[in-house]
Amino acid sequence: MAPTPRPGTPHKATEFVPLAGASGILAGAVRHSAGRTFAVFLFSAASAAAAVALPAALGHTLDLLLEEAAGVRRAVVLCAALVAAEVLFDALEALAGGATSARSTAWLRRRGADHLLSLAPHRAADRFSPGDLVTRLTGNAAEAGTAPSTAAIGLASLLVPVGALAYLALIDLWLALVFLAGIPLLALLLRAFAQGSSDSISQYQRVQANIAGRLLEALGGARTVAAAGSAERELARVLAPLPELGAQGRRMWQVYGRASVGSGILVPLLTTVVLAVGGVRLVGGSLSVGDLLAAARYAALAAGLGAVVGQLNSLLRSRAAARRIAELLALPAVRHGTRPLPADGPGRVELRAVTVSRGGACVLRGVDLVVPGGTTMAVVGRSGAGKSTLAAVAGRLADPDEGVVLLDGVPLTEADPSELRREVGYAFERPVLFGETVGAAIAFGPYEPSVREIGAAARAAGADAFVRLLPGGYEAPLAGAPLSGGELQRLGLARAFAHAGRLLVLDDATSSLDSVTELDVGRALVHDVRTGTRLLIAHRVSSAARADLVAWVEDGRVRAVGPHERLWEEPDYRAVFADTGQDTGGS
Description:
Elements: H1 21-32, H2 34-67, H3 72-118, H4 121-127, H5 130-145, H6 147-157, H7 159-171, H8 173-180, H9 183-220, H10 222-228, H11 231-239, H12 242-283, H13 289-303, H14 306-329, E1 349-358, E2 361-371, E3 376-380, H15 387-394, E4 402-407, E5 410-411, H16 417-423, E6 424-428, H17 438-443, H18 451-460, H19 464-469, H20 485-498, E7 503-507, H21 515-527, E8 533-537, H22 541-546, E9 549-554, E10 557-562, H23 564-567, H24 571-579
Parallel strand pairs: 3-8, 3-9, 6-7, 7-8
Antiparallel strand pairs: 1-2, 1-4, 4-5, 9-10
C-alpha cells in the first residue's frame, strides 16, 4: 500500500522568531489570541461581578422581607437578574474560552510544524523520537493552547475573593479582619500545591510521550511483529512505562487531594469563625440578619480555593506542556542566504574539507571532492561508509559541521533557498509520496510541472505502464493505489525527473528495481531527462560502470576518484561490491 498521502502544495516554512522558553510561548499564544482572550476575561469578570453582588442583594432582600418594608419586589427582581447574568456570562465565557483555546492550539501546532520542517531533516530525529514529536505537536500543544483562556479566567476569578473581602469589610470591618487572619494559611496551601504539581505534571507528560513513541514504533512495524508472533511481547514493551505513569498520576492526584483537603478544612473553619463573630455582632445590634447572611456567603467566596486551585492546576499543565514545545522550538533552524546561482550553471559540486558528525561519531572526515558539471558520479562504499551523508550535504539536506559545499561556485549556505530547491532534485531509496492522486505525487515539488512533463517523467522512470493500469490512471487516488516497493521507487524517481535541475542526487533510488528496469531508467536518465550533474549512490557494479566517474568512500573519507575501469583493478574496490551482495562482474 502507498503511504498515507498529504494533500496540498509543497511546504514553505515561515520565518521563525525564537521565543524565550515556556513563558515566551505562552505569552505568544496570548498575543496571538489577544482579542478573544480579552473577551474571555470580560465575560468571566462580569460573571464574577454578578456572583459578588448576589449575596449583598440576597441579604438586603431578606432584611426587607423581615421588616415587611417596601421595595421587596424590586429586590427579588434584582436577585433574579444577577442569577441570570451569572449564568449567561458563564455560558459566554465557556464559548469564548473554547474558541480561544482552539485558536491558540492551532497556532502552536502551526508554529511547531513550521519550525520542525525548517530544520535539517536529521536535526529533530537526532533529538526526539517520532512518537515524542507527535505528542509535543498534538497533546502538548492542546494543553498549552488552553493557557490564554485559563489565564484570563484565573485572573478574573481573583475578583471573587477580592470583591468578597471588600464587601465583607463594608458589612463589618471586624469580620474582614477576622478573615484576613487566615490569609497566610491560604497562601501556604497554594504555594505547596504549585510546587508539588509542577514537577509531577512534567514527569507525567514525559512518560506519556515515551509510551506514544513506543506505540508508534510498534504500529510502524506491525507486519514484522505479526510475522514474528511477538505481539504480546511487543505490547509488554509498549506498556512497560505504565507503572511509572501510574505513579506520576497518583502523585499529581495526591498533591491535588492534599490541596482539596486543606481547603476543605480551612474554608469551613474560616466561615465558621466569621459566622461566630458575626453572630456576636448581630446580638450586639451591629449587624442585621441579612448582613449576617451576606457575610457568611462572602466568607465562603473569599476563602473558596476550588476555582483558584483548578485554574492554577490548568496553568501548571499548560506551562509544563509549553516547556516541551519550547525544547522543540529551541532547535536551530537552517539559515538561508539570498545569493542567486549563476544562470545556466553546469552544476559543478565541490566539497571542501567537509566533516559531519552524527550522535558523537564522525561520519565524514575532511572530505574534499569535486563533481564536474554535467557529469555523472557514482559514490560507492561499504555500508556505513558515509555515502548517504555525502549525498545529503551535496544538496543541502544537511549542513556539514565543518567545511563548505559549493554549487557552481556559490556556498550552499549563501544560496537563495527557493532557487536551490528548484535546481537540486532528490530521489530516495524509500520515497514518501504526497498528494491526492498518483499524478499529484509526481508533480509534488518546488513547482508544478505540466501534464506532459509528468507523463514524460513517468515514462523515463519506467512508471507510466503500471500507472495507466490503475483505475483512473494518473488521477487514481494515491491512498488506495496497490503499489509494490519497486513501483513506489519508480514514482519517486518520476517525481525527481519531473523537477530535475542542474543537480540530481539519486540516493540508492534504484535499489528495488530489477537489473533490466534499472538499465532502462539509466538510459532514460541520459536521454530523456534534463541534462545536468548526477550524483548517484550506487551498490551495483552496473551502476558504477555506467557513471563517468566513481568516488570510492571508505570510513568517512574519499579513498579514490576515477573511472570505474581503473578502480576495478583494485582488489579492495572489487570487495566493496562483494560485501553488498551485488553482482561482481567487471565493467
